[in-house]
Amino acid sequence: MSKKNWLDGNVKRIAKLGRYTKPEKVEGAIKLDSNENFALDREFIAGVTAEAARQVDVREYPLDQLEQMYSQLAKYAGVSEKCVAAGSGSDQVIELLLSTLGSKRATVFTPTFSYFINRCELHGIKVDQVPLKRDFDLDKQAFLKSAKKADLVYICSPNNPTGNQLDRKTIIEIVDSLEGKLVLVDEAYVDFADYSLSRDATKRDNVIVLRTLSKAFGLAGARVGYMVANEKFVQIFRSTIQSPYPISTLSLAIASGVLERASYVRETIETIRKERSRVAGRLSKIDGLEIFRSDANFLFIEAGRNYQVISSALASNGIIVKMLGNIAGHKGCMRVTIGTREMNDKFLQCVEGTL
Fold first, then answer.
1. Please, are residues 334 and 32 in contact by the beta-carbon 8 Å criterion?
2. What is the pLDDT of residues 321-334, one digit of tens each?
3. pLDDT one-digit tens code per residue, 37-93
4. Can you list the pairs that 46-50 forms with residues at least 24 positions away whose Cβ atoms lie under 8 Å?
5. How far apart are CA 228 and CA 242, in angstroms?
6. In this structure, what are the phi and psi dihedrals at residue 324, rounded to the nearest 5 degrees?
7. Is the pTM higher than 0.90?
8. d(C-alpha 109, C-alpha 128), whole Å
C-alpha cells in the first residue's frame, strides 16, 4: 500500500468513529447538563483565580508549581506525593495511557463514560462491553469473564451516566483477580461518594485511579486532573510518558489556591449531597418517573412516556439537562446535574408543573 493510500485509509477510518459532542452553549440558560459545580460560589472561584493571576508570571515555564500541587493533592487524597501525577484534565491522562501502553483489547461495562470507549476505538483497541444489570449493579461473573480476555479494564465508579458507585469489596475482588491486567478506576465523581480506591491503588501494581478537579472543586475550565498509582509507575509516567509541562502556570496556581481551601469545598460537597437527596425525594413522588441511586453530583432519571413532554417543558423554561433517550433497556432517560438550591428548585417546579 502506498503512503498516500495508507494516510487516506486511516483518515477515512477515523472519520467513521464515534466522537464526544460538546454541549451547546445557551446564554442565560439554567445549565444542568455537564455536571459542573455551580453550587461552589462563583465569587470564591473568581477570587482564587484573581489571586493566582497576580502571583504568577506566565512568561515562565511552570517549574516548582507542579511539585507544590502534588503535595496538596497527595494530602487531599491521603496518599504519598510519590503516588500522584497530574494532567490537563483526567481525559489527557486517559489519552496518554491508551496511546503509550499498547493495549489491544479492553473491557468496560455499559452504559458508562462514552469518551473512554471512543478513545479506545481511535487507538484501534477492541472494546468488549458487558451490560450492567437493570439496577445498574455489576454482573461480576460476566464482567470478569470478559476482563480476563483483555489487557485493559475500565471501571467508572461512581459511574457516568448512571451515578452509582459500585460496591468497594466487589471492585477489590475484581482487581485482585486480574493480575497482569491494567485496571483504570475512573473516580471523577468520587468526592460526592462514600469511598475512594486511591490508597488501594498505591499498594497494587495493576491499578490506576483517575481523579479530577473539574467536578467537586469547580475547575472544569482550568483543566486539572490527576492519577493515583503505585510509586514505580507514577515515576515512569511523570518522567517519560507525561509532557514536561502538562498544566499551565495559571491553572496550577488556581488549583493550588482552591486546594488550600479544601475545607470550604468539602462544605459545598456536603451541601450538594443534601440537595441530591432532596431533589431525588421530590422526584420520586411523581408518578411515571424512576429515580436511581446516585453517589455523584447528578441524578439518572427514567421518564418513560413522559420524556418528550418533560423535554419540551425544560426547553421552554431555559433549563438544559443531558437528554439520553432510550439507554440500556430504560426508556426516556435523562441525566440532571445537582446545582444550586435555586437551580434545583426551578428544575423541580418545571417537572412537577408538567406532570
1. no
2. 999 999 999 999 99
3. 999 999 999 999 999 999 999 999 998 899 999 999 999 999 999 999 999 999 999
4. 48/254, 48/257, 48/258, 48/261, 49/254, 49/257
5. 14
6. -105, -20
7. yes
8. 8
Q: Contact 161/154 with Cβ under 8 angstroms?
A: no
Read off the amino acid at residue 313.
A
Cell numbers at residue 170, please? Answer: 466487589
Helix orientation angle between 249-260 and 65-77, rounded to the nearest 10 degrees: 30
For the record, the C-alpha cell of 178 comes out as 486480574
Q: Which residues of 101-120 are buried (b: 16+ CB within 10 A; e: fewer)?
A: eebebbbbbbbbbbbbbebb
- The residue type found at 67 is E
Q: In the structure grid, which three cell numbers stand for residue 144, read together?
A: 470478569
The b-or-e profile of 235-251 (16+ CB within 10 A means b, else e) is eebbeebbeeebbbbbb
CA distances from 41 to 112, 198, 213, 216, 300 (A): 29, 27, 15, 12, 25
Domains and CATH numbers, the chain: 23-42+263-354 (3.90.1150.10), 56-260 (3.40.640.10)
Which grid coordinates belong to 122?
A: 481511535
